[in-house]
Amino acid sequence: MATLNPTNSNSNVKIQDVVDEVSVIGDLTPVLKQSGGYAEQPAIAISNNVMSEMIAERFPWKWNKYKIPPFVLTPLQQDYPSTNITQIGWLESGVRIDINNTQVPPPSWAMTAVRDLAVDNSIGGFPGLFAWYDNDLLELYDWPGPGVLYTNPISQTTSNNNKQTSYQANWGGILTLSQYGVTGLVPPPPPVWPGPGPQPPAWPVGATVIDGTTEWIVCDPKAQGFRFTPRPPSGGNVWLCRLFAQRKARPRFTDLQEYLDPIPDDYVKWFIDGFIAYSHRYSSNPSVLARYEPMRRVWLEAMAEAAKQGDRETEQHGFFPDKPLMSPTYVQDQGPYPYRWNGGWW
User: Fold this and answer.
1) Rounded to whole angstroms, how far apart are CA atoms 1 and 12?
2) pLDDT, tens digit, 9 for 90 and up, residues 270-324
3) How far, in Å, CA of 135 to CA of 82, rounded?
């Protein structure tokens, strides 16, 4: 019987609830019960396999969508590390907003998520492509220098003229700007390790580095950052980016008393069906084991139909040329048109 989850979670169903339901199936009782009780394994392993299958790119569940905290693009900067974003499985979509425009609401245009982007020096007023990378794979600048002024670009009286808002310190830390101001006269030292115990190999994520009147935050090197193309020019529009992604599979289950979060209760049926299919894989009975592959295939097909049922709205997509039909031009996509033409540069 499901119990009310006291935490902020999508689910009120525990792995134990699923085991209780599935273990009454005669062929699967020997798999899930031992000596009249329940075994942690293989139920934990089965649950992790089913969760990984459900949180996969072919199933873009709305309940698994992740809204990335918005951030502003900086002139001439292509890469943007995050402090601690680690849950992106794959990027879905994005939008850039001309945030200082006096129109209400401010104009916005779609951007396209891609798997990979090269580091290049393309500069243009309308960034249109973006991808994610681990912070330690991004191309980062050195310390911006002494006496560099940083001002908040979100203001109807300013244009975006800040220098880079992230850098890699000479002591190894990846830093991103957290407070506007003026940099000091020399590169700031690393943050003091507060203890207890010896400092770990990596600098503490979230620690503040004081640099004159500016402040920087230490980023997790394995957090997920972003790359855009083309780079915004100096003094151009101030683009606020809102990006959306599907979360990766949650941390692995380790206990039968864990809830099936992020799977909501009205989708638990699909988890149970997958649990039944995977339970056949762990049977010592050859005839039961032989049913695993066809049952898993049927389950995946049924989930594909469930994903369609939950996503019946008309897609906001169409067919557009990948390249111009006439000879190449150097007119850039200025926003409201979905043509990308090799990144907007044909």
Assistant:
1) 10
2) 999 999 999 999 998 999 999 999 999 999 988 887 776 655 555 545 554 554 4
3) 7
pTM of the model: 0.80
In a domain, 330, yes or no: no
* pLDDT value at residue 306: 75
Pair (91, 230) in one structural domain:
yes
Q: pLDDT category, 157, cuts 50, 70, 90?
A: low
Domain coverage including residue 223 = 64-248
Work out the widest C-alpha separation in the chain, in whole angstroms: 76
Q: What is the pLDDT of residue 280?
A: 94
Burial 14-31 (b: 16+ CB within 10 A, else e): bbbbbbeebbeeeebeeb
